[in-house]
Fold this sequence. Notes:
The protein is mainly β. It is 5% helix and 34% strand. The N and C termini lie close together (6 Å).
Amino acid sequence: MRFHTRLLVTVSAVAAAVGVRDAHAHHAFATEFDASLTGEVKGEVTRVWWQNPHIRYDVAMKMPDGSTQMWALLPPGNLPTYRRENWTEQTIQAGFQVTATGNLGRDNTKKLYATCINVGSGPEKGRALGRCATSGTVTQVTADPNVDYTVTAKDYEVDISGYWDNRYRFQVTVDDFQPKPMPMTAATAAIYQARKYGDDHVLRCAPPGLPRIFGSPYPMQVVDAGTHYLMVFMQDNTPRRVWMDGRKPPAEQPPTSMGFSTGKWEGRTLVIETTMLLPGWLDGSGYPLTGGNGTRIVERWTPAADGLTMERIMTVHDTGYTEPRVRTSGAV
């Protein structure tokens, strides 16, 4: 049943103590790192761990005696923080040279709370990342005093606001796209054959993003926020905004797991188009999603005349496939 609502380290041979620094916003910082010790790591990135709650870079550092030490760089912040700085998974890649400074790990563990990372190679060469580049705080007022920021519902002729149970006509989103067989290009087929099920980020309880959140069996709430619909999925408490005011994606916005969605009503059907998606998986089978300019998703949400149920159809246009892919679902 649906309930309506209108409301909404180069590291020196010996790390020197350089004075106690301020407290850091990091999970168990005091357990992992020593706030009184700082160091520098300089070397080649061997692996990028791009995941919540924190990212990590593995770095191979050449020592004066010719040996190699492996270090883990753990920058402060989380994925939303990095997105605000236009810091993406591609900014630092395996093979790039970096120099990082920050707090050393306790008990001589080879990890660094990397408050500053300087990129030494690649397209972003010369760029500084972290607190040495931005404090992450707002220092000026950006609101326009002549603009009314009050949220006012649009009160569309068709009302989809409220809670929806997505188990209505639910089907497991593993190899559920139609028609079959999957019409993959040769390059996509090669990626699919090389997939490893353990690489699925959803298995690590990371948000599935689109198109997979569309098939989630958990409830969602839809709020008419005037300029957009705010959709909150219970799975991983995932928010989504579908802009209804005709706006275009900001030039500085990077691709994200949920992309940029716009919508319009065509009769009783809400048509949603999503672009600017990160590469990923189409489903739990591991079929690749190209992302970026190679992917566009169109959804059609059609409530029944009595407003108690809703049919939903998703069509994925992706350059990795020779035909559009279609997924169906419902809500009640």
